[in-house]
Amino acid sequence: MKWKFATAEYLSTAMRTGDVTSVELTNEAIARIERDDRLINAICVPDFDRARAAAHQADQARARGEDGPLLGIPVTVKESYNIAGLPTTWGMPQQWDYTPTEDAVQVSRLRAAGAVVLGKTNVPVGLQDIQTFNDIYGTTNNPWDHDRTSGGSSGGSAAALATGFGALSIGSDLAGSLRTPAHFCGVYAHKPTLGLAATRGMVAPPAPPLPTDFDMAVVGPMARTARDLTVLLDVMAGPDPLTSGKAHTLTLPPARHQRLSDFRVLVLDEHPFIPTGSAVQAGVNRVADALVDGGARVERHSTLLPDLAEAATIYMQLLVSGSVARFPIEEYQELQAQATELSEDDQSLDAARLRGMVFSHRDWTQVYNLRELHRHTWRQFFEEFDAVVGPITPTPAFPHDHDPDLFQRRIAIDGAEHAYFDQLVWAGLASMPGLPATAIPADRSPEGLPVGVQLIGPMFEDRTPLRLAELLEQKIGGFQAPR
């Protein structure tokens, strides 16, 4: 199939020159899904009839001389976004028949840009896992190794892109949910600056789609090239028209540099709370070598960097404090009892998570103030540097692990076991202060699995890590189809 892994940019050009129509692209994508998705299980809610109709309308619009950034491009959407007439379950069995009546703001923006929505992609239960499986739609497999996870929670979107099911997808990220699946599946993703892209309609059912400001969660683009990420981010970015959009318009600053030799980069490959596996370390070093070869100023240490241990602790506490807000009172009281038994000397991430689960408002406010200090430290850091290169998780994609007790799961790093959720410290590096981060393919593990890294940039300067991603793609290569 000729157009299977073509980029959105290439497809747009081909449609403008008359080499292909949106109807042809859409029918070909649907045929691929119907043929190949039985092994991957990425598309959990197909919307093929409306996709064909939208493709026909896109071709008619182009024939009238109209154009748009995504006109006629087949795309997918994470299941957690509301699409009128399709179920939004977040993988929760009790919500299997919840059907919203209006599109999420980002789905509306896709449609306004001319995109053809093929359907929705699979997610873990409540979007709260580093894997993608649930009792409604089953398990999404990694296209590179079906015995391994595609990541979570945007695992369906990453697997769809890696398998050629559409040129673009949209997901969300609180704990690496865009970046980790991109890393595991060998594609690109961008976690925008907190607040850059409106989130209305990306809400757990049956909650109403209100224009809520999330504490750390964002929505963002996924693609097979860095340039496509930028195009899709431009479609997604901007305030909610129901709130700040009434008074504000968005103008993102340009990338700080256009040439690799002008970038000032800090490379990180070690964390105080968890080791970095050899395969990921090799990927980070490959990018670091490419930066040096391209003439960039590369450092491995800086006194300007915020304290990584304190940052991880703050992140874990903020992450879990909201997750227990709707727990039954009996479960909450049990957690309180467990927290009182912790030693004051216990500064492990397990202890941080338990303390965060029973935060008082006073506790939360104190940690929030610490976060603001970290944000200020990052502002000072980015006066000296343009980006940080680091891991996304300590390992490539790991085997499926469906143990219902998530806190009993373990992640193996070069043969040694570690707490499952400790691997989120690298995702938190950008999530906690709200910084933009671009996930790029960097290498292959000895087993042939994709290895990605993240490029973290200054707040609201999203074009800087995106431009760096584009330059690195030219230097070391980018997406490769699963073998």
From TrEMBL:
Enzyme class: hydrolase
GO MF annotation, one: amidase activity
Sorted UniProt keywords: Hydrolase
EC number: 3.5.1.4
A Pfam family assignment: Amidase
Residues annotated as domain Amidase: 24-464
SUPFAM superfamilies the record matches: Amidase signature (AS) enzymes (SSF75304)
Name of this chain's protein: Amidase
Source species of the chain: Salininema proteolyticum
InterPro entries: Amidase_CS, Amidase_dom, AS_sf, FAAH2
